[in-house]
Specification:
Helix content: 25-40%
Largest sheet: 4 strands, mixed
Distance between the termini: 37 Å
Number of strands: 7
Structural class: alpha/beta
Low-confidence stretches: 6-11
Radius of gyration: 22 Å
Shape: elongated
Strand content: 15-25%
Order of helices and strands: HEEHEHEHEHEE
Length: 169
């Protein structure tokens, strides 16, 4: 058939990476310790330890947790470490920071463990549109991981991409 439509994208060696496919399930929580401070400004060790001991940590089973303090208070680092000793047996991941940092750390682990053996000398498209909170840093981490092996790297969709990298011949 001379008028047959051929899908050249489907027949190419092109590999599409969609970071949304790697998004792990589990609730994300910004755990704010401000309510455990005296007048939301001072950490009193005895009172803080009492709050930590009385809290139901099991409710965070399989959560991703970002520990923070949303008020301008001096929080000793041991306070976050104490919470981490209680919550870590239940949570999938615990960090000190905000939710975007949490997503970055999650993706750092994912990309670090990504098997790139199938990407060797292949053209790669990194899909850009996402409905989940993929941090911008995840894309740069991915570039660092795949650039040494990729033939080329494009960003976007197969029908409309932005070229980012092409291996020198």
């Amino acid at each position: 058939m001379e008028n047959e439509i051929i899908n050249r994208v489907a027949n190419s060696q092109l590999i599409t990476i969609d970071l949304e496919d790697y998004y792990p399930s589990g609730k994300r929580l910004l755990f704010d310790i401000k309510d455990w401070l005296f007048q939301e400004i001072i950490l009193k060790e005895k009172d803080f330890r009492a709050f930590v001991d009385a809290h139901n940590w099991a409710q965070y089973q399989d959560y991703f947790i970002a520990l923070t303090c949303s008020v301008d208070a001096i929080i000793p680092s041991w306070a976050y470490l104490l919470i981490a000793t209680k919550i870590s047996p239940f949570a999938k991941k615990v960090i000190v920071g905000h939710l975007e940092l949490l997503e970055t750390v999650i993706y750092q682990d994912i990309i670090q463990n990504l098997d790139i053996s199938d990407f060797n000398n292949k053209p790669i498209i990194i899909k850009g549109c996402a409905n989940k909170p993929i941090p911008a840093s995840a894309y740069t981490l991915l570039i660092e991981k795949i650039q040494p092996v990729a033939k080329s790297i494009l960003f976007g969709e197969a029908c409309s991409t932005v070229p980012l990298y092409r291996k020198k011949k």
